[in-house]
Amino acid sequence: VAVRFLGPGVAGPLQKPAMVGARAGAIGLGLVLLAVCGAVKELPESKEEVKNRESRIILRYQKSQTGQESLESRVKRLESLPGISRAEALPSLDMAVVVCKTPEDEDDVLEALESQQGVEVAVPDTWVQLDDLPKPPRGVKPQSTEMCEANPRCKAWGLQDACCPTRDGVWMECCEDRPAPIDKERHGFSTISLLSWHGGYLAAMRWGAVGFYPSMEHQDTRFFVVPHVDGYVSLKNQHGAYLVTTPSGRIACWHRGHGVADDFEKFKFIYNKDGSVSLRSKSSDKYLAAEHPSWGVATADREEIDDWEKFNVTTVHGWDTVIPNDEHFEKLWGMNHFGGRDIDAVEAWRFFPAPPSNTVIVGVIDTGIDYTHQDLKERMWTNPNEIPDNGIDDDGNGIIDDVYGADFANDDGDPFDDQMHGTHCAGTIAGHGNNAEGVAGVAWAGVRLMALKFLSASGGGRTSDAIKCLNYAVAMGAKITSNSWGGGGSSSAMRVAIERAQRAGVMFIAAAGNEGSDNDAIPHYPSNYAPSNIISVASTTKTGSLSSFSCYGKESVDVGAPGSGIYSTIPGGKYASLSGTSMATPHVSGLAALIWLFRPQLTMPQIIEIILDSATREDALQNSSASGARINARSALLLASTYEGSRPPVHKPQALTFEDSDPGVGIMAGDAVITCAEDESDISFYSIHIISGAGFLLDTIATVDATGAATLTVPLANLTLTKYAAGLAVVAGNGTGSAGPSMAATVEIKDYCVPLFGPSDVQWMGDADGRPGFVAGKIQFQRAESEKSLTHYNVYWHTAAGQGDLVGKVPADGFSRPQCEVDCHLLDINVSGTTYTFHRGAYDNEELAKIHFSGPALMTITSFRTEKYYDFLEVGDRQLSGTKLALPMNLKLPSGLHTITWSSDRSEVEEGWTFHLTQTGTTADFEVPSMQPPSMELQVTAAFEETEGAVNAYGTLKDFDASVMVPSPALVARNLSFIDENVQEKMIKGRIEFFPPSMGADAVTFYHVYFADVAGLAQWAELSWTLEAPKKASEMLQIDLDLELPSAAVSIVAVSGNAHGEGAKTQIPLRDIVRSAPANASFSGDSDPVADQVRGDLTIVPAPVPTGITSYAVYLGNGTQKDELLGQIPPSFEDISFSFHIRLEPYQRSLIIVSTYDDFEMEEGVIVNFEDLVDDSTFFLLGTRGRSLGGSEPAESPVEPWLRTPAMGWDERQLLWTEAPVASRRGRSHAQAPHIMSSLLLPLDSADKPPAPSAELRRALRSALAEVLKVSLEQTSLTQGERLRCQQATAKTAQVLGKSRLQQPDERSCLLVNFHVVPDAQKALHPKLTQDFLDRIEAKVIRWHQGSTRQLDAALKHHLESLAPGTGGAMVSEPQQMAPKERRRAGRGLAISKEDGVVLTTEEREETSEEPGYILVAVSIGAFLGALTVLFAARRGAFGAASVKRSSSSPSPTAEPDAVDPVTPADVSVQLSEGQQG
Question: Is the pLDDT of residue 1459 over 50?
Answer without folding.
Answer: no
